[in-house]
Amino acid sequence: MNSSFDKNTIIGFVLLFVLFIAFFWYSNKSQQFAMQQEKRKQDSIARIEALKAKPTDLAAAHLDSLKRDSTSRVSTAGNFTSAALGTEQLVSVENKLMKVTFTNKGGKVKYVDLKNYHTKDGGYVRLGGDNDNLSYNINTSNNSAAANDQLFFTASAVQQNTDGSQQISFSLKDSSGKAVVHQYTIRPDEYMIDWNIHLVGAGQLLTASTLNMQIKQQMIQQERSSQYERRTSNVCFSEGNEFDYISAKNQHKFEKPVQWIAAVQQFFNTAVIAKNSFSGGELQWLRATDTTQVLGDVNASLQLKVPAGNEVNIPMQLYFGPNDYKVLKNEAPGMDKIVNLGRDAYSFVRPINKYVIMPVFDFFTGFVKNLGWAILLLTVFIRLVTSPLTYSSYLSGAKMKVLRPELDGLKKKFGADQQGYAMEQMKLFREAGVNPLGGCIPALLQIPIFFALYSFFNSNIALRGQSFLWSHDLSSYDVIAKLPFSLPLGFGDHISLFTITAVLTSFFISIYNMASTPTQDNPAMKYMPYIFPFMMLFFFNGLPSALTWYYTVSNSLTLLLQFIIQRYIIDHDKILAGIEEKRKSPKAKKSQSKWQERYQQMMESQKKLQELKNKNQNKG
Fold first, then answer.
1. Cα gap 135→212, rounded to integer Å
2. Highest-pLDDT range among 27-31, 129-133, 199-203, 316-320
3. Is the dihedral of CA 78, 80, 86, 88 positive or negative?
4. Integer Cα distance of 219 and 127 in angstroms
5. Do 237 and 191 meet the contact criterion of CB atoms below 8 Å apart?
6. Strand order from edge to edge, sheet including 98-103
7. Does residue 254 sit in helix, strand or coil?
8. Which domains does the chain have, with CATH numbers?
9. Is 449 left (phi over 0), alpha (psi -120 to 50) or beta?
10. Rounded mean pLDDT of 392-410?
């Protein structure tokens, strides 16, 4: 009967899995066909509308729009009329790490190319662009105001300083002597840009001595999977000199001074730092929900109080660079926490990463250049450190294996009397000196280690673009086959070989452990160890291959250690003799842990209630 049940169950699972894949393949194909049909329809309508419009009408409308825009610019420019109209000009300044491109329109950074990091297409990673903006309003006359990004500044020549830094300035001047100067300083081997805003006539240029800064940043996909990168993107900031962030929420109102704010992607961020702190403001974070390359949009409105005086300097900084812990810890205070080594409910793993995982990994990468082998050495180190606890759990498992014949005999003896069996089982464990929870130690120990490594591998930019075996990028999933459809629960449209090896090794561990533990009468409990590896197949398939490689190595070491310890180190006959000797000891029959006492009391109470219930039923 049991073999028949097992066979039918397996056949059922296989059929369900086949139907599951077929359903999602058909649904995905139908959805794509419907989207293509709708796109053809919209394109046809657009072509018809375009044919209806006369070219002369379009040209006239465009010319009229330009005239209205020019008139509006001149009007809002006030006394800065000469800066109202112009042509955008770009100027680049480089160091060893980045190429910064400035624009005279607004006197600001337009975008930054990071020389040490490349996109999947081979070009430099670019942060910033046309959809990003950093601006503030100035009073251009008594009755008008304009944003600095609507005015054309005059750029200076790039100045080389004796300390190796480079400077460039962008200036605005009106007829009455008021001026706005943006001075940028780029130091060698640094991602941070010093930005000093110098105002002449600050009392007239600003209202109520307050600089109202608007920050608009659009995060664009840099990694292989926009969906996964989108999940790891958020907005980080320092408020009241305390690190904080928003990810699930989409709004935040600042109640305390703000030191910096950063739009953070998986491996890069763009940050604005106020040396004298923003006095307050609000933030909006809109995570994209479509399938485009846009990850999300950050919009912030921040206020900065300016000292009274005719001439004032407002010291700022801009960071365009990697989420590298070693780099960020030397920048503004708290910026190192942008690297997610453990937050919120998982903040307990941050010390593990900071003081154990990171130093050990850096030590191995000091002499092992291939990071895949460094991960293997890190895994061996973790297993060696946890080996004392692991050995005690294996010893407990060996004792359980020795007691298995007696446990099977108790099952036959008590039959359906679960309370009686549980009490006798606890008595047997107590007499033999066996901890039934001893085998749970490795599983419990894996929880903080797994979460620590999950955070570490997800945020470690050193893994980005590093190949190992068949994986082209350890910071992302490996692909051995593409699917014509996408499966849910994080599986995606690909098959990861490292995920398969992690699942198979977990499955082998389940088989090995089931062979050494008492048999389960409950089918759910019997098949539970096999269900977990199957669930892993879905949840691990989209994870970084560094993590699935670690899991594969860790599981392989577990199997090897279990085999060696059980076969060559643990003497089962000696254990059985020790158990028999301990059972004869009077102390063994009396000594109980508090947990065992409570458990036995609970079993006795349940047994008495069951006996009373049976008596009442017999009387009825």
1. 8
2. 316-320
3. negative
4. 8
5. no
6. 90-94, 98-103, 108-118, 124-128
7. strand
8. 86-339 (2.70.98.90), 350-602 (no CATH)
9. alpha
10. 70
Q: Dihedral, CA atoms, 555, 350, 324, 473, nearest 10 degrees? A: 20
Residue 35 φ/ψ, nearest 5 degrees? -65, -40
Cα distances from 400 to residues 226, 523, 560, 592, in angstroms, run 48, 21, 20, 18
What is each CA distance from 604 to 78, 327, 343, 434, 590, in whole angstroms?
Answer: 91, 62, 44, 21, 17
Are 174 and 153 contacting, i.e. CB atoms less than 8 angstroms apart? Answer: no
| DSSP secondary structure code for residue 462 in this structure | G
How big is the CA angle at 504 (ends 502 and 510), to the nearest 5 degrees? Answer: 105
Place of tokens 């109209």: 85
How far is 557 from 563, CA to CA, in rounded Å?
10
Tokens 């593409």 belong to 482
Tell me the two tokens of residue 292.
Answer: 């485009």
- What is the distance between the alpha carbons of residues 527 and 9, in angstroms, rounded to a whole number? 10
DSSP of 194-212: EEEEEEESHHHHSBTTEEE
Query: How far apart are alpha carbons 15 and 13 in whole angstroms?
Result: 6
User: How large is the C-alpha radius of gyration of the chain?
Assistant: 33
User: Residue 612: what pLDDT?
Assistant: 67
The verdict on pTM exceeding 0.85 is no
Per-residue tokens: 88: 């955008």
The answer on pLDDT for 205 being more than 70 is: yes
The residues, any chain, with a CB within 8 Å of residue 572's CB and separated by 6 or more, are 398, 401, 402
Report pLDDT for 8.
45
Q: Among 4-18, 162-176, 249-263, name the one with the lowest average pLDDT.
A: 4-18
Place of tokens 């926490």: 337
The two structure tokens encoding residue 74: 């001149």
> DSSP string covering 470-520, please?
TBS-TTS---SEEEEEEETTTTEEEE-HHHHHHHHHHHHHHHHHHHTS---
Q: Given its phi and psi angles, is residue 74 left (phi above 0), alpha (psi -120 to 50 degrees) or beta? A: alpha
Phi, psi dihedral angles at 144 (to 5 degrees):
-140, 155
Token readout for 44 is 């046809």
DSSP 344: G
Contacts of 447 (CB under 8 A, 6+ apart): none
Q: Measured at the alpha carbon of residue 508, what is the angle toward residues 404 and 446, in degrees to the nearest 5?
A: 90
The H or E element containing residue 293 is none
What digits encode the pLDDT tens for the residues 85-132?
888 999 999 999 999 999 999 999 999 999 999 988 888 999 998 889
Residue 466 has pLDDT above 60, yes or no: yes
**AA identity, residue 507:** F
The residues near 43 (Cβ < 8 Å, ≥ 6 apart) are none
Token couple for 435: 């901890």
